[in-house]
């Protein structure tokens, strides 16, 4: 049996009782290590708490050497551990399809992920539209397709959860070309970087005449940091102000609100960087 086990968002104690029992009993346990991190726990702390060794599973192992993970799963129990929920990344569904091709049975143990924990900011989950990913720009690669999706959500009055880029075990172009396994330090996109890229994208659209009346640098946004941990932080301000606001260590997420229910307004006000300024901004947003 191949088990997909969500670990939650905070630390080693966020595992479910069912998940913990399975981890302790399996033959091998792989820890997916490239789509997210636990905010308050290292691999060593997880191993100490679970009472067993964990095998790090980087992108290369999961996506190109999955047979190693699936080895003997027809007759032995294998666990694949994922930060958040097991289906937080599409690559994990690919692993399930590979298991099915080999007639390996699987079972999923769910847990909290940012996709539902984002409700902590006060915005109602059923009012969210399509989730978007914002990637870290380089000097030569600055995609802006995510802006169109945010604008479409806003036009429909829907909130947008923006998942921010994570760089784990990345190699430079030179090291890739020379096939040298020299990796760059991990990098986690901040809400200030995401907001800055959004503001620049919006301004570029305005310069070429594609003005957006629903999304501007003065639009409200919600910055979330370390959701699910004891140091969780939520800040509500404008995109322009968020671009220079530091909300601490990773992981970060960004939300662009759509139409607001009066209860959502009250909840967002609790996290407003400036309550009076927030009230002025809300006057420009449709209240449903």
TrEMBL record:
Signal peptide: none annotated. InterPro entries: 4pyrrol_Mease (IPR000878), 4pyrrol_Methylase_sf (IPR035996), 4pyrrole_Mease_sub1 (IPR014777), 4pyrrole_Mease_sub2 (IPR014776), Dphthn_synthase (IPR004551). The keyword Ribonucleoprotein does not apply. S-adenosyl-L-methionine binds at residues 9, 85, 88, 113-114, 164, 227, 252. The keyword Oxidoreductase does not apply. It holds the Pfam family TP_methylase. Pathway: Protein modification; peptidyl-diphthamide biosynthesis. Residues 1-182 form the Tetrapyrrole methylase domain. One of its GO terms (molecular function) is diphthine methyl ester synthase activity. S-adenosyl-L-methionine-dependent methyltransferase that catalyzes four methylations of the modified target histidine residue in translation elongation factor 2 (EF-2), to form an intermediate called diphthine methyl ester. The four successive methylation reactions represent the second step of diphthamide biosynthesis. This is diphthine methyl ester synthase. The lineage of its organism: Eukaryota, Metazoa, Ecdysozoa, Arthropoda, Myriapoda.
